Amino acid sequence: MTPTENSHGTDPGSARRGRGDWTRELVELAALFLAAGTAHLFVAGMQSHSSGSYALIALSGLIVLAVVGRRLWKHRRRSVEAPPAPADGADFDDVQDRSRRLWRLRASVTDSPGRLARLAAGLAALGGNIRTVHVHPTVDGAVDEVLLHVPARVTEAELIAAVAGAGGRDATATQADVRELDDVPTRTLNLAKDLVNGRSELVRVLRGVLGDIGVQWQEDALAPGAEGLGGTTIRLAAPGGGTLVLERSGSSFTPAEYARARAMAELAEDCRGRMRRDTQQVGVNGAELTLRVADQDDLPMVSEFHERCSAAARYRRYFSPGPSGEKGLQRLLTPALGRAVLALAPTGEVVAMGNLMYDGDIGEIALLVRDDWQRRGVGSVLAARLVEEAQALGIATLSAHTHVDNTAIARTLRKAGLKLVGAPEPGEWCWMKATAPAVA
């Protein structure tokens, strides 16, 4: 078989001609007309004014222009009609989803045959591609929770209208993160693992399980029988004391969601003892200190520690005389509001305290060292521990605020990697550090 033959012994060029591609023949015909006209002029002489020669040459040019125009038109049509080619290892759906957005839909529905089919049809009319569906049974029906990709042009109002048209009630639509595409049991187990390993706190875990919710901590303990589910509100006993109030706007919590939230709160309570036992021994200027996470059980020790700190030290830490009474100290020691780390002397008394407060992936640290333990490196080891805690929690940006004349804390923060970024208020410095989260 020669290189110009295919497996059936035919010429590929003839096969293309059989499909109606006459480009080559037209070009050959134009070349023939050009050669004939040129030869006639050469033989008859340029002065013969033979109209036939010039007609052949002009016809040859017209044929060439027609061929070039046809090729350009076909190329343009193919570039417009051809779909984008998937990258290596990617299917066509992945290419389409690059121009789509991921949404989370939630709606109350009547538990009747065909309801999911109607919902799927309404979303398909918008170009929606359903990724996951989760059904929460309720007393009077069910709550459907759908993750789907839709074209970027589709709005929140259009999604809600499609759900309402399919019989949904109290519909909400929020843009979702691609990490939410894992199934609910897998995500719940991963969040529980992070809670046990100290890589996350209860509030962050609850938001990972329940979505965009508001969480408030109240210092009063729950009354007997007050814990439970009430429409858009869940009340839980907070680990270490007090009450957690979870709120969601737009749609009610389901019994299944309440059960998950309560299980996470109970798991966090079980983890408290382990975190108190998880200590770190550090040597500071010839003394052996113990660092550990604190909670509300440490309230008497922390209260005595504040009393032994001078008024000047407390003012540099709090920009005020200090926490207002026992409730103010309770808030500092509430895990739901942040993380507190204590430095204990060999005698067991508290000599320093650091706090890490955060909201999402933005955190702030603050330190208080007892006067007789200052300038001995205690603040440096405490600040380093707080930076480690922030990295373990996945906090991306860490900040601190100090008085401009507090040179000791300035050295401590620089040693911990924070940099001076400005003066937001007169007499105040702001420090920042971009951390490298240990957990994505």
UniProtKB/TrEMBL annotation:
Domain ACT: 104-183
The keyword Transmembrane is assigned to this record: yes
Any single Pfam family the record assigns to this protein: Acetyltransf_1
Record-annotated N-acetyltransferase domain positions: 289-437
InterPro entries: ACT-like_dom_sf, ACT_dom, Acyl_CoA_acyltransferase, Bact_Acetyltransf, GNAT_dom
Spans traversing the lipid bilayer: 26-46, 52-69
UniProt entry keywords in alphabetical sequence: Acyltransferase, Membrane, Transferase, Transmembrane, Transmembrane helix
Protein name in UniProt: Uncharacterized protein
Organism, as annotated: Saccharopolyspora erythraea
